Amino acid sequence: MSLDFDVNLDSESEDEPVEDGDTIKNIHEVFRKQFSISYSECASLKKRYITHAANSVDFSKIVIGIDKEIQIYDVTSSGLSKYVGKNDFGRFDHPISGIKFFNNDNNLICCSTISGEIHMYDLRNFKKVFTFEDDTEVVVKPVNCFDINASDRLIAAGTDELNHEVYLLFFDIRERRLMGGFFESHQEEVTDVKFHPSKQDKVASCSTDGLINIFDCSKESEDDALLYSLNTEDSASKLKWHNNDKLSCITNTNDLHLYDVNTQDLMKKWTRSNITDAMKRKSVIDCNIVDCHNIGDEMMFLATSNYNKGECVRSLKFNEKSIDPLCDFIGNTQILRASLYNEKDDVFVTCGEGALITIWKEGVVSSTVSTKESMKEESSVKKKLKKKANPY
Fold first, then answer.
1. Contacts of residue 346, Cβ cutoff 8 Å, sequence gap at least 6
2. Where are the WD repeats (predicted)?
3. 114 pLDDT exceeds 90?
C-alpha cells in the first residue's frame, strides 16, 4: 500500500488536541509486519530520560546518554550486558549533547557535553584518551552536536549561539588539535552535523535558522568550503544521509523533508499532518518522528504517538513519491527519544523518557524484561534478606 500526499497540505490545528487512536479498525492489514519486545533494560530507577544512543558499526555495543552519564552495553544473543567500569567513568558535570562510535574501531567512542568538551574514550580500559575543546578563547563554546568522518580523522561539532555567533568547529583526531572553525554560515544554533558515510570531506549541518549547509571541509576558507545551502523554511532538527546523496531532514515541527544534494532539489516534503495520516492516527499534536534510518537501498523513519505513554510506535518506508506502511510495534511503554536500527539482523533499539533500552524483533518473542518495577522489587527483596540475616 502506498500513501501519497500533497506537499502543500497544511497541518491540522494543534490548538484543539483530540484523543489519539487508530483511524482504522484492522491496523495489521496495513502494517502487516509486527515487532515485539525481545529484551528491555532499565537504565535507572530514578526519573531520568535517555536522550542519546549510538551503536558500533557491527552492532556489538550500544552506548546511551542519560542526563549527565553514559552507559555502555554489550549486545548479546539474550539481550544486553552492561559494562561495569570505574565509578567516575562516563559521568560529567554537564548534560550530554551527543555520542558517537568510531567508524573503524568498536572500542573507541566520543561523547560531547554542553560545556564545550568532546571526550574520547577507549572501552578496553575505560580510560579517557583525550578531550577536544576550543580553548582559543576564554568563553566556552557550548557543543550541541558532533560527528566523526568516515576515515575517523575529523570531528565536526556544532555549537549553540554565543554572543550572537554560531560555530562549526573542526578537530584533527590523530593530531589531537583544533583545526579551525566556520562562523558565518549559520545564524542560530546548530542542531545536527552529519558527515557523508563514504565521502570523508563532505559534511552537512542544520540549524534552527532553517538552513542545511553542505561543506567540503578539505577547503581552508569557509567561503570555499560552503558548497551550497538548502532552505527548509522551518527550524531544522535532524539529518540523515541516504543512498545516491539523498539527505533527509526532520524539522522541529515534525515535518519530513527529502533532498537530492547533487541537484540541490527538494524532492518531497511531508507535514506533521501527512505523517499522522500515514501512521493511521487521529491526533496530529501527539505524533512525532523519532529518527530516519536506511534499510537496504530504501529509506525508513520511526514514528510514535506520545498519547498514553507512547504506546503507538510505527515505522514507514519513504521515497520521493510516497510513504509506505512497514511495521507496527507492540508493547511500548515510554515516550521515545532515540532509535537505532540493525539492518543486518532487522532489529530495532529504542530509548526514551522511561529510561528503558528496548530491543525489538519481528514476531512474537519470549521477552526478557528488566523494568523499573522489577528492579525495585529485586532491590526490596535484597534489603529484606539482608535485614533477616542480621541477628540483632
1. 361, 362
2. 183-216
3. yes
